[in-house]
Specification:
The protein has 276 residues and is an alpha/beta fold. Helices cover 32% and strands 19% of the residues. It is built from eight helices and twelve strands. The strands form two sheets. It has a nine-stranded mixed β-sheet with strand order 1-2-3-7-8-9-10-11-12. α3 packs parallel to α4. The chain starts with 6 loop residues before the first helix and ends with a strand.
Length: 276
């Protein structure tokens, strides 16, 4: 016999084959590893001690003492964002994902079949969020504009069309899927996604978003619906449009929100709640 190819060697080879087969079968039966939840770029437990500014109209006031600036990426110039970054400010751009305005520079890119009924603001129209393939390229370019100007986070607005008369039969689940897709798209382009409004879906969407922006939850007595964010150590930036800070700050700060009083035009004027 040559090369040890005797009967015992053959038996050893035959005994080894089932072991290999079993290992392969076991490996195939194991479930694919799940993607770990994204890590929020916002420092947990710190942002509640910050101030924030939300300005969409009027000359941009760069002197506001706030750590976070929420701005219009089209109106805000690269020179303004560069100055704010030099001051150590965090920049959030506001992008409509479920609607468009007739004056938007990219308005013509939306196909006619995705255009719906008028929205709640002048010259605004809803989009069919079920048509992801048509909407994704336009939204991706809107996010790239933010990134190119130095923003590090994006606030998604008009992400609650399923509760509105949009002209499309958008369901709760349709909206959830769309919002998660947009959040993933923002992350893939290096932006931290935030959710504006959409309180009925907060419990489901809080794991997918890094922060929230709320309007008037104290007046509407709905602040508790935002607890999935603060319980997870994620910031909630809150604004009220009526009353004085003494009317609502105790409540909003008690929930762990960063709060202020603004006018609905969202110009530079603000009165912040005191922070510890």
């Amino acid at each position: 016999m040559r090369d040890g190819a005797g009967p015992s060697a053959g038996r050893r080879g035959r005994r080894g084959l089932p072991v290999v087969v079993v290992l392969l079968l076991l490996a195939g039966c194991q479930s694919a590893p799940q993607r770990p939840p994204p890590t929020s770029p916002w420092p947990a437990g710190v942002t509640r001690h910050w101030q924030w500014q939300w300005q969409l109209t009027g000359p941009l006031d760069l002197t506001v003492e706030a750590q976070v600036f929420l701005l219009d990426p089209v109106r805000t110039t690269a020179a303004e964002t560069a100055r704010l970054r030099d001051l150590g400010r965090r920049l959030v751009c506001q992008v409509s994902v479920g609607s468009y305005v007739t004056t938007d520079p990219d308005e013509g890119r939306f196909p006619i079949e995705v255009r719906g009924h008028p929205g709640v603001r002048p010259d605004t129209y809803w989009l069919d969020v079920r048509r992801w393939d048509e909407l994704r390229p336009v939204l991706a370019d809107r996010f790239r504009l933010c990134r190119g100007k130095g923003f590090t986070a994006v606030l998604l607005t008009d992400a609650d069309g399923y509760t509105r008369y949009t002209g499309f039969p958008v369901t709760f689940d349709d909206q959830l899927l769309f919002n998660r897709r947009v959040a993933d798209l923002a992350r893939s382009l290096g932006l931290s996604p935030g959710l504006r409004g959409g309180l009925p879906q907060v419990a489901a969407l809080a794991p997918d978003f890094d922060f929230a922006v709320d309007e008037e939850c104290v007046r509407l007595r709905q602040c508790d619906r935002l607890l999935p964010f603060t319980d997870a150590g994620k910031p909630v930036f809150h604004v009220e449009y009526a009353g004085t800070t003494t009317d609502f700050c105790v409540t909003s700060v008690g929930y762990g929100f960063t709060s202020m009083r603004k006018e609905r035009v969202l110009d530079a004027w603000r009165v912040p709640c005191p922070v510890a």
